[in-house]
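NAD(P)H-binding: structure tokens wanted.
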Amino acid sequence: MNVLVVGANGQIGKHLVSSIQNSDKLKAKAMIRKEEQASYFKELGAETAVVDLESSIDAIAKAAEGMDAVVFTAGSGPHTGKDKTMMIDLDGAVKTIKAAEQAGVKRFVMVSSFDTSREAILEAPESFSPYVAAKHYADEWLKASDLDYTIVQPGMLTNEEGTGQVQAQVEVDRGEVPRQDVADVITACLENDSTIGKQFQLVGGNTHIKQAVNSL
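Answer:
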């Protein structure tokens, strides 16, 4: 399975490309914003496509041509304003969904936020609510599409080394999860068609990743 990783140069994205390249079933194509970012992925044996997420749907669709799946793991980051959150986390996500459809790619994995409910938008701090709202509507757009989707909602992300063990269910208590484990969960989801149509929260836990994914 050939997988386009959108937001590949991000912290989860880099782990994900590495995780995919270590799978005997998957092969990654890294969608990056700048050519100078390509060397990291070429060393992993991954193909690259230089496309700005704020460019056209056609440009993203071209990168997705020949792919079997798309993973959206891009994010505006915590230090940008509401405008960039709107352009990346919402518009960028929706454009990627439409680009996947245009390119004939059926499988789509979305890296979302831990809680994207309407209640979470209302309860979030003012600085964080635009991000939650963007993720909420991006998730809703994906669920309304005809794509074979999986929506992963990780808890507080850390840079700790992955443990290979998580808790993954529709609802779990808030907690932390290493980015490396999130990436390995995404890889496991891509390898397991039973995750199609599933949306789940993800934190650190005591269940092996493949077992946790199989139990969704």
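The first strand starts at residue 2 and ends at 6. The mean pLDDT is 95.

Cheers.
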